[in-house]
């Protein structure tokens, strides 16, 4: 374990890394939310909603999930 | 497009489903025994193999890894094939996975009964079994990814993302927390010590809840709930957002298990903040599940499957609200170390995992055996009895927890502890332990009804081992189509998806743990702290073997109510030689961190310890502690002492530096003999004849050492 901490301490500005990772996480998340609400994806999301119901080839009649 | 014919492997699903039921019965039966032992110590049977300290890990591991584990695999093997329109990648791998997992469960049960344990909660298994788990887990992942790569469906449905996240994270957690140095074929010491060990353990422990008990079951929910209700998912958008939020946030929340301990403050605060944020994605999942039923609530009335699922999802919502609340420091100062924790996990285990599993099984059996459920009435009865069981289990424990914590903290007007005797606070809540047994019993009766109902259902139909299916072949393209978003491209590329998910959880885990290595001031060194003597080390290993840490904590928090009762609060620097840490998480007995401080509040003589371990009820008629007569009968096994010292040296414990002589591993036996004879002589002086070779001498040596290093004369 000493080896690990020695190695880490030898990286200059290692303290900056958490901030960088936070920024990466945050922007990924924002990008993803933007993507889910993009208008052109609407059909895709509506299709995927009933994806689990299709798998044995029997489409049910009452799967007309309304828009949200 | 060419239509391809293939078959789904139902046989493997059937086996996993049967295993789920079998281990459910076993795990809950052992749970009942544990509940009985806590109320009536006679149920420990005065046998080493059946004391509470060994029974409790059998119960927790059986329910988590055997019952829920097989439930996960049944769900994955059923839904994955259908969602991907492909048979499992390799039947051979499927069966290696199945039998391998069952073999691990059996070996776990055997080693726990024998007292072979690492003491780390939910990671008690020793290193050979740890390696076996790793291998079988890789087999599972290999099989899953093989299937994903050979799929005939274009997109990966959200359930599959949850399965992938489960696979990746459990692998990382298991390996990260199991890094240990073996000193014999069945024993090892973890490389981490004290605060770091605790942090890694609860990073693991918390995320085992997240990625073994939660994410795979959310995947299960997203498949089986729409199926059973025959309704589309309420919002697929929400499912994506809450998936990523859950994966990102969960991994940071581990330190909330260590509030007010010797863990550095910044890590505690980090855990609190992320725990509070977790409410959002958790409730996103709950709402998505419940709202899937909008317009179909009439079905819930006549359908037991849906009833189970609704209560399961509701229990998930309650549990994931309660969890963050318990992470608030002031709430935690009251609830931690009490039965509140036990009630909380049982809302999750009995409500969320248990009921969702039952719902799934009630759906799967008629479907796979191509018949009707034998009795909807019995299933309904199961539902109501089970629900009552959860209520009768949890409410008494919540009540008991509040009563006990307030008793612990109450002072008289003169500033003295109102209940200085710990035992009083246990005796007070014992009736609650009795009611809890009733709750567990009700739940078990419900389970029994299910077993009967499902066996009858299976008998009335026939399960085709291979279910014929057909689907058009998939024309794949790894290129992003014009106008196709990144995420949609990503979800068609499982390997890239897995890499990203791994990076997400690795970064979270790394930034939680690495700083304790980096920042020296996190663990201040204390000059007077010395390694254990060989005899104390042996005693400590017996303490671990008997699972003393399941009931006795070794972590005094900096509250006046605790320092008054136990002595000086615990410091990080005191614990640097503790491989593993033994902080514990529940006080069924008093904290022992300062047990050995001479003249301290907890100090007892050698003779007291001898008599107490031999027969606790003789010392205190109302004590619920098991007796440990075999410690007096059995000789201490010293064949591994040298190997233990060598392992400790490798881990950085300075047995190789002055004042220790060179080759201390070889001369350690002399030190051990000398110390044992001193204790034996002291016992003799006080009227107890016991040979210095007996195990109890080592245990007493260890107990008398606890907390001594920084004792100040009072």
UniProtKB/TrEMBL annotation, chain A:
Keywords, comma-separated and alphabetical: Membrane, Transmembrane, Transmembrane helix
InterPro entries given in the database record: Cbb3-typ_cyt_oxidase_comp (IPR008621)
Membrane-spanning residues: 16-37
Keyword Transmembrane assigned: yes
Record's protein name: Cbb3-type cytochrome c oxidase subunit 3
Pfam families (UniProt xref): FixQ (PF05545)
Species the sequence originates in: Ancylomarina salipaludis
Keyword Membrane: yes
From TrEMBL, chain B:
Tagged with keyword Nucleotidyltransferase: no
InterPro entries named in the record: Cyt_c-like_dom, Cyt_c-like_dom_sf, Cyt_c_oxase-like_su1_dom, Cyt_c_oxase-like_su1_sf, Cyt_C_Oxase_1, Cyt_c_Oxase_su1_BS, Cyt_c_oxidase_cbb3_su1, Cyt_c_oxidase_monohaem-su/FixO
PROSITE patterns assigned: COX1 (PS50855), COX1_CUB (PS00077), CYTC (PS51007)
Reported cofactor(s): heme b; Cu(2+); heme
BP-aspect Gene Ontology terms: aerobic respiration; electron transport coupled proton transport; respiratory electron transport chain
Gene Ontology cellular-component terms listed: plasma membrane
Lipid bilayer topology: Multi-pass membrane protein
Coiled coil segments of this chain: none
Segments crossing the lipid bilayer: 12-38, 58-78, 98-117, 129-149, 156-176, 202-224, 236-253, 273-293, 305-321, 341-365, 377-399, 433-455, 497-518
Taxonomic superkingdom: Bacteria
Annotated GO MF terms: cytochrome-c oxidase activity; heme binding; metal ion binding; oxidoreductase activity
Domain Cytochrome c intervals: 534-707
Chief location: membrane
Pfam families the record matches: COX1, FixO
Domain Cytochrome oxidase subunit I profile stretches: 1-457
UniProt catalytic activity: 4 Fe(II)-[cytochrome c] + O2 + 8 H(+)(in) = 4 Fe(III)-[cytochrome c] + 2 H2O + 4 H(+)(out)
Metabolic or biological pathway, per its Swiss-Prot or TrEMBL entry: Energy metabolism; oxidative phosphorylation
Enzyme Commission designation: 7.1.1.9
Keyword Metal-binding: yes
Note accompanying the cofactor annotation: Binds 1 copper ion per subunit, denoted as copper B.
Positions of heme b 1; low-spin binding: 59, 346
Compartmental location: Cell membrane
Record: residues binding heme b 2; high-spin: 344
Keywords for the protein's UniProt record, in alphabetical order: Cell membrane, Copper, Electron transport, Heme, Iron, Membrane, Metal-binding, Oxidoreductase, Respiratory chain, Translocase, Transmembrane, Transmembrane helix, Transport
Similarity comment text for this entry: Belongs to the heme-copper respiratory oxidase family.
Name by which UniProt lists this protein: cytochrome-c oxidase
Encoding gene, per UniProt annotation: ccoN
